[in-house]
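Example: NR LBD domain-containing protein.
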Amino acid sequence: MFFRRVITYKTPLKVCEFEENCCGGPNKNFECRLCRFQKCVTAGMIHNLENITLSSTLLQLSQLEFNKRKILEHYQPLKQITFEEATDVDPVQFIMKPYGRVFDVTEWETLDQITNIDYLKKLNFSRMMTSADLKAFLKSSYMNSAILSLAMHDYSLKSGFIKFPEGVDVFPKEMDAVVASKPEFEVGIKCRLIGRLAELQVTNEEFLLLNMIFICNPAVSDISKSGAVLLSSYQQMYSNLLFKYCQTTHQNLAPTRFTDLLSLSHIVSKTKQDIASAVLLITFYKPDIEWNDMLKGASEYLLEN
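Written out as structure tokens, the predicted fold is:
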């Protein structure tokens, strides 16, 4: 009953005052909801929820992805926010874009990052984290989600490279100097992942589950033990669902298909590394470049991690 109540909460759990050892130490404190919830997750209760089925999960994830793309294409933040504000617990406020408003590449990059952070906040397990764990999770995971989501969208449109809505190039003009000296960055960032998606002929259902598996990576810096346990449990759950989907669509070849799909994580990671390298080179070639507060904070975090 306690577990079922917690997963319906709309606000994050409070941080444990005793280093998350209330249920295992000599002085047990069953008033600590975080530690009690961690025991529930460790016991496997996440996997026993009746509503976690392949069909219902795909429907829910499809709707979330659709809403994220709708916000990206038709909305903008109510006000300018910093990276720290975007990764706070509070939801991001959006308003409709003014008719005829044209975004440049910097504005699209900012909006893409914010919409992916907002998307992660809407996932069921996000509200089961403490505010500190949620911030660490959002900072660590949003970029992987943004990379894979953009690539899958353009792949579904039979495009050979990643771009922002309205066909806007993902590289700012400041990248010209970098591309001239490191042309492999442009090819790698724009085309590598889409090429592999096309080679494997990844379906939308596979993408939705893969995205969650990559998002739920428990190897997040500065996350608590309970946060890591929660992410690991959900990653295992989505992995099981993806394998089940592979069994449905590929029968005896399911293990091979499952392994091939998981290999996309290396390409996403490589793309993220290339983006970090490109940001570093831009600051070298264009030391006077001015980022807005959102991109400045995001770039600093990317380079530090």
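The mean pLDDT is 90.
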